[in-house]
Specification:
With 268 residues, the chain is an alpha/beta fold. It contains 9 helices and 11 strands. A 6-stranded mixed sheet has the order 5-6-8-9-10-7. A 5-stranded mixed sheet has the order 1-4-3-2-11, with helices on both faces. The radius of gyration is 20 Å and the shape is elongated.
């Protein structure tokens, strides 16, 4: 019989690391390491709906990328202990006996970054990767496409209904920088535009007053720079889907499911 501890050791194999990263967020948030696994659900974030689906599937371990209680570090120092939403969610977890493991730092430290790799694979751009940096993956398309064509391709491949952008999407794009999650800040993205002659940056999210404003000014000056914003979950969910696909064969006697989430923000 496979225990939670054994599943976690499989997750850590690519790094040959121990059970923790200094100051990291990865840990077993609910459950016990010696619990026997009945099934595993992998998801981007353990929403109440995801937990309910996992219960219905009969699994007893959820592997989530982001925090369960609305905080990166899952700390509850902002008076959530009396909040009805917090209490209802915690009661659901406790009553179901669901174990929840946060798998964030380790997968980002894989070589290549496991979350970025999932996005590259979902886009079918594996053959176009020219360089993998710490925070970004550089893509060189075999033939130039307009920013609008790239945007429509992103929407189809990732099943995204809408995107946000800055710059002139009518211009040709040949070299692209991919940034997953919250890596869209100016100090990370802006230097790469010039250092690597990027035409387009695609990221999950970042401060709106940094990279988007740089692209606005660059466009006004006649420089062909563009930005497409996917959304945090939309950029990282493919990485967790890839994790589920790879974990399944390593646990042949245990069902492994990927539970996707819908857009959290809607356009009205």
């Amino acid at each position: 019989m496979t225990t939670i501890k054994e599943v976690l050791s499989i997750l850590h194999e690519p790094l040959h690391l121990g059970e923790s990263i200094d100051h990291g967020v990865d840990s077993l948030k609910f459950g016990q390491l010696d619990t026997t696994i009945k099934g595993v659900a992998v998801t981007f974030i353990a929403t109440i709906e995801v937990i309910e689906q996992a219960i219905a599937l009969g699994v007893n371990l959820i592997i989530t990328h982001e925090g369960t209680f609305y905080s990166h570090r899952d700390d509850y120092d902002f008076s959530l202990d009396q909040n009805p939403v917090f209490l209802a969610k915690k009661r659901l977890i406790d009553d179901s006996g669901m174990a929840i493991y946060r798998f964030h730092d380790y997968i980002h430290k894989h070589q290549p970054d496991g979350i970025t790799e999932g996005l590259v694979c979902a886009l079918g751009w594996q053959a176009y990767v020219t360089e993998m940096l710490t925070a970004a993956t550089l893509i060189t398309l075999p033939a130039a496409r307009t920013g609008l064509e790239v945007a429509e391709y992103l929407k189809r491949q990732l099943d995204i209904r809408y995107l946000r952008s800055s710059g002139d999407l009518s211009k040709a794009c040949h070299r692209i920088g991919l940034f997953v999650g919250y890596r869209g800040g100016g100090p990370l993205t802006i230097p790469l535009f010039e250092q690597h002659r990027l035409d387009l940056i695609v990221y999950g999210e970042g401060p709106e007053w940094e990279t988007p404003e740089y692209v606005r000014d660059a466009t006004h000056l006649g420089n062909n720079k563009a930005l497409i914003v996917l959304g945090h979950a939309e950029s990282e969910q493919p990485g967790m889907k890839l994790l589920a696909e790879r974990l399944g064969p390593k646990l042949p006697e245990i069902p492994v499911y990927f539970i996707p989430i819908e857009h959290v923000l809607q356009v009205i």
